[in-house]
Design goal:
This protein has six helices and 44 strands. This is TonB-dependent receptor.
Length: about 800
């Protein structure tokens, strides 16, 4: 084969492993030839896709040259944009991404907060010299001086050093433990995510989390349910813990044991939602079987956010959130105040489905001294609603009748009031030790009129009053041990709850006769401790222990029945947690953990004398890996086995009908991938697979069967593209696989696939942080589906999801 002479430029490019290096060589070559240097490459989509290919297969000189042409085109396009931008990543000393790092351009109102992969973006900058300030809890504040040219798109990477001086910024227990040292799976949904999702219901946030499925009952103010790690009763039947700023939303003996209603929350007021998988954290107790939703509200800061959304079915949602930091004399930011409210109303998709809901929340903090601060938080909720109930399969398949109630349905609905008060007193003894002390109270009334089944009659009124008192303290520390950083937490908590539960048989909300009059009290004392030791980037162990003990009483004065009373007799549990985290090399993090958890017998069973029902034991074994080969690509995968003993399951949730599922096993894989190959384009996908099995049961026919309400697969795709001027579109896809709805596995639901599409205009170009206008189409392809299905082969009941519908809204940060 004849040899073809190559030009000097070709000789340079054939040796290169990156098109960005190619651009540098190309400039050098042109200058040597007396030609002007071309503008530098801005890492467009061509370059980044090449890098991914080149990471796996290299070198290909022809491909280098083709991609170089793409670089040139991208460079010309981006250089033409007006205004400079600054992007990059913030990492820890162990080279792991840092989330929620605050970034401020000194002397300006410009700034950003890093995402889960440590990335940030600041746009619309003029040419000039700037000083960047980086700050985060547990790390030294760092500054970086930069020079921006007109139209330049500069990228930087910053590493923050661990410090003990910022523990004074901790307000929520557990914040002293660092995310990059976590040996367990914790999915975090940030304020930026919340702003971009256009939601009015906080529980919808969990649809972004791998392996979590929302079971929307669509019954007005009734709490929806979710499945997590193979437990299908999250939020409704006590199989997941839910907290807001440390205040437990789980009701011990109200609607059902562990019922948690997120309708009391205001999405715009949330700072983050952390989803802990399984019984893995020492911070949470008996309800954390499948996991925990830990929601934190915004504290301090200067902001004024507003959002308004109008949707199909006469739906209106208005939210407002305000934050102010005020000086007191010569003391800067001595007072920190936050206020938020929400007003929501809808006629609903189905007949008799109107809802009216109002929420208000406020917090005021006062810096008593440089080391001590105090804060008072208040929350109020009021709602009234009607509920369409559930319909049979024949009606569900009939387009003309899907929106109607069941022919035998009645005027279901309800009302709720909820109030909470929390007082926090925090003190920093020194730079490495901070004490958090809290106390809170909850008062609640809940009324629900509900009819189950399709036969005539059978409506009930459920009325509960609930009073809670809780107090506790935690020490949060950061120290050096054998030359390595040790982060730790230790705490003690007391919890007391009294529930007065009454039931009536009713007809169209008219009481016929009382059926229950019961009083439950329960008190618990919990102690926990956990330490994370940063011995090296390769070996970062974590050890934790939790102890819980319970006392309580039960009194039943049901009409026509002999009075019954009993006490909880010495229920307790000790839960160890151990794990290891390792950064084997830059971009690859491995984790492994073993954790024990527990749950108490449901409802009155835990009080019954003569029945030896100790805590249900749960053991979770988990391994996981996070892979970041490139700045704009991240993959995370976790595999787990979760075993239980003597498990009692309520089916359907809220029915007060229980079965003994005996020993069970849940095995699954959860994966998530995020890719941002070019500015403005973001692609996120999740996939999970889970198998459940009853291993041992008093009823032999159930052995080998799967548990009800657990989809075998869940797949999501979220694709967002935003043009430089701020106009963009978002496409969301969700597929939920088949799951069993009867204990004998004879009846199942085939699952569903649904898509949503939104177009928007961001006031801050690439980000929704300053607000946006949006128009969204839910159920884009008009799928017929239900997120809640239960029953048997001959009688499946459905809560139908709405057909294609629309919403339009605006959010703005003043």
């Amino acid at each position: 084969m004849p040899t073809v002479a190559r030009s000097g430029l070709q000789q340079h490019t054939s040796r290169l492993a990156s098109p960005w290096k190619y651009c540098a060589y190309r400039n050098d070559f042109h200058q040597k030839q007396g030609q002007p240097a071309i503008s530098k490459c801005h890492q467009g989509i061509g370059c980044r896709l090449f890098t991914l290919i080149n990471f796996m297969y290299k070198p290909y000189s022809l491909l280098n040259q083709l991609i170089a042409l793409l670089c040139l085109l991208a460079s010309a396009t981006l250089t033409a944009q007006s205004g400079a931008s600054l992007s990059g990543r913030v990492l820890s000393e162990s080279n792991t991404p840092l989330e929620a790092v605050n970034i401020q351009l000194e002397g300006t109102a410009k700034g950003a907060t890093t995402t889960a992969d440590g990335a940030f973006l600041i746009e619309g900058l003029e040419a000039g010299n700037y000083t960047l300030l980086f700050s985060s809890v547990g790390y030294e504040q760092t500054s970086r001086k930069i020079n921006l040219k007109a139209g330049e798109q500069k990228q930087i990477k910053v590493a923050l050093r661990t410090t003990v001086t910022s523990l004074s910024e901790i307000y929520v227990r557990g914040e002293a433990l660092k995310a990059e040292n976590s040996t367990i799976t914790v999915d975090v949904i940030t304020l930026n995510d919340i702003r971009s999702l256009n939601i009015e219901q906080p529980l919808r946030l969990i649809e972004q989390v791998p392996g979590v499925d929302l079971v929307a009952y669509r019954q007005g103010g009734v709490a929806d349910q979710f499945s997590i790690r193979g437990f299908g009763g999250g939020g409704h039947a006590g199989e997941a813990e839910v907290t807001i700023d440390g205040v437990s939303l789980n009701e011990a003996e109200g609607h059902s044991d562990g019922y948690a209603d997120l309708n009391v929350l205001i999405p715009l007021n949330l700072k983050s939602m952390k989803v802990y998988k399984g019984p893995s954290s020492v911070l949470f107790g008996r309800f954390a079987q499948g996991g925990t939703l830990a929601l934190d509200t915004r504290k301090g800061g200067d902001y004024q956010d507003f959002s308004f959304t109008a949707s199909s079915f006469n739906t209106l949602d208005a939210q407002f959130a305000l934050g102010r930091e005020m000086d007191l004399g010569e003391r800067q930011d001595a007072i920190k105040a936050n206020l938020a409210f929400q007003l929501f109303r809808t006629d609903g998709y189905a007949e008799n489905a109107n809802v009216l809901r109002g929420n208000i929340a406020g917090r005021i903090g006062y810096q008593i001294t440089d080391k001590t601060d105090i804060a008072l938080s208040l929350r109020g909720h009021g709602s009234e609603w009607n509920a369409p109930g559930y319909i049979g399969e024949e009606q569900f398949l009939d387009e003309d009748r899907r929106r109607l109630q069941d022919p035998n349905g009645e005027n279901d609905g309800g009302a709720k009031s909820f109030y909470s008060q929390r007082l926090d007193l925090n003190h920093s003894f020194n730079d490495g030790l901070r004490l958090l002390v809290f106390g809170y109270a909850v008062q609640q009334e809940f009324t629900r009129f509900a009819k189950f089944g399709s036969a005539p009659g059978g409506q009930t009124e459920r009325f509960n009053t609930r009073d809670v008192y809780a107090a506790g303290a935690s020490l949060n520390g950061n120290a050096r041990l054998l030359g390595s950083s040790l982060n730790w937490i230790a705490g003690l908590e007391y919890y007391s709850e009294e529930t007065d539960r009454m039931r009536w048989a009713t007809s169209d909300r008219i009481r016929q006769r009382q059926t229950e009059d019961r009083l439950f009290t329960i008190q618990s004392v919990s102690a926990y401790a956990q330490g994370e030791w940063e011995l090296s980037r390769y070996f970062r162990p974590s050890v934790g222990l939790r102890y819980d003990t319970y006392n309580g009483s039960f009194m039943a004065n049901d009409p026509g029945q002999a009075a019954v009373s009993d006490d909880i007799d010495g229920l307790y549990n000790v839960s160890p947690k151990v794990g290891i985290r390792s950064t084997v090399y830059s971009g690859v993090d491995l984790r492994a953990s073993v954790s024990n958890g527990f749950s108490l017998p449901n409802s009155a069973l835990k009080y019954t004398a003569g029945i030896d029902l100790g805590p249900v034991q749960l053991w979770q074994y988990e391994v996981g890996a996070t892979y970041r080969p490139l700045e704009w690509l991240e993959v995370d995968a976790a595999g787990f086995v979760l075993n239980t003993t003597n498990e009692i399951v309520e089916n359907p949730p809220g029915s007060l009908e229980f079965i003994n599922a005996g020993k069970t096993q849940r095995t699954g894989i959860e994966t998530k991938a995020s890719i941002s190959p070019v500015n403005g384009l973001s692609i996120t996908g999740t996939f999970s697979y889970i198998e459940t099995e009853i291993l041992d049961n008093p009823e032999n026919t159930l052995e080998g069967k799967g548990l009800v309400g657990i989809p075998q697969t869940i797949t999501t795709l979220n694709l967002t593209y935003t043009l430089p001027m701020g106009i963009g579109a978002n496409y969301r896809f969700r597929d939920v696989g088949e799951y069993f709805i009867s204990n004998d596995n004879a009846a199942s639901y085939e699952g569903y696939t649904v898509s949503h599409l939104a177009v928007f205009y961001n006031f801050n170009k690439q980000s929704a942080n300053d607000g946006r206008l949006f128009f969204e189409i839910q159920n884009l392809f008009d799928a017929r589906y239900a997120e809640s299905v239960f029953g048997s082969v001959d009688a499946r009941s459905f809560a139908p999801a709405p057909p294609r519908n629309y919403s339009f809204g605006i959010s703005y940060n003043f």
